User: What shape does this take?
Amino acid sequence: MTTVGVLGGTGPAGRGVALRLASAGFDVVLGSRDETRAGVTAATLLPRGDGVIRGGTNEVAADCDVVVVATPWDSAVATVKALRDALRGKVVISMVNALVREGKELVPLYPSRGSMAAQLAFALPESSVVGAFHHLPASEMEDLDSGLDADVVVFSDSAAGRTLVVEMVNAMPGLRAVEAGSMSLASAVEAFTAVCISINIRHKAHSYVKLAGLSD
Assistant: This one.
């Protein structure tokens, strides 16, 4: 079984992805700078399926077959740079959004390379960086009884990486993968997360993206 490490996995977004990955049968390592915190958090997540979740350091998570980056945006590049050797040759999934809050809205920031996915790809030239999991409400992801039925937009310059992530997403309960295309779409995909969160703040909701008109 494929193992999946989640860097910065103790936050709400990382917990939700880890829980649904484990419920799809993947063995997941919830990574953190604080191993004790990771272990305590992992023990609170109860997947439904054959997968398991255990806590560990970010270094332990980086040793997994596939690695998800769920750290805050302003520490993501430094985190992966420190783990570059362990991530070499692997698919690295970026779910990082560079956002700041202004009043009741979140607005996107644009890093020097246009997106956080591109920033991570530049920092990890020997890894296949794939963008996914950007528009999902964390509370709904962490609640397996929420009725979530969301689409996950997947993009990358690596066709093989996109294919792998699409297969993983489609195995996760409540999610459908939508293969969008190359890394050139990263900025638009990440920025739209600000729209989704701002709508949810304004309407006190937990809405998500669902694209109509696509064949299953």
